[in-house]
Amino acid sequence: LYSDADPTLISAIKTNYPETHHFHCIFHIDLNLKKNLKGKLRNQFELFRAKFLEMRNSLCHKTFKIKWNTLIDEFSACEQYLTRALYPCKSSWACYICYQSEFHSGNSKYTMGRVY
Questions:
Q1: How confident is the model over 42-82, as pLDDT tens digits?
Q2: Which parts of the chain are beta strand (E)?
Q3: For residues 50 and 95, which has the higher predicted lDDT (pLDDT)?
Q4: Torsional sign, CA 42, 115, 94, 32
Q5: Taken in order 56, 58, 61, 67, is the CA torsion positive or negative?
Q6: From which domain of life does this come (predicted)?
Q7: CA angle 25, 30, 34 (to 5 degrees)
Q8: Cross-strand partners of 2
């Protein structure tokens, strides 16, 4: 199930559908990146965004972690937002988690058809 990460909806899903894995919509994450980081990064924002999406699209944890650390090192102005707002909920937006969840659920056809 995908949503815009609304806290009320997240709570309702956990309560009413405890077996359902809730994912955060990348469109809404992207909107929040623009809202919170574009002013800080200015002309570096598009480069940051491309590297963020590349990191997010990693299909294994080790690659994700390396790219996450590189992103933090390269764009230190973003560290607080990324570590406070996004890292704690990475299990809801990182592709390596999404891929593993669908792989283990037996829904690999759906995984193969998804645009990451």
A1: 999 999 999 999 999 999 999 999 999 999 999 999 999 99
A2: 2-3, 23-24
A3: 50
A4: positive
A5: negative
A6: Eukaryota
A7: 150
A8: 23
For the CA atoms of 46, 51, 52, 57, the dihedral, rounded to the nearest 10 degrees, stands at 130
Domain boundaries along the sequence of the chain: 2-113
8-22 pLDDT tens trace: 877 888 888 888 777
Q: At what angle do helices 61-74 and 95-105 cross, to 10 degrees?
A: 170
Pairwise CA distance, residues 80 & 78, whole Å:
6
Neighbours of 76 (CB within 10 A): 9
- Residue pair 94/56 in contact by the 8 Å Cβ criterion: yes
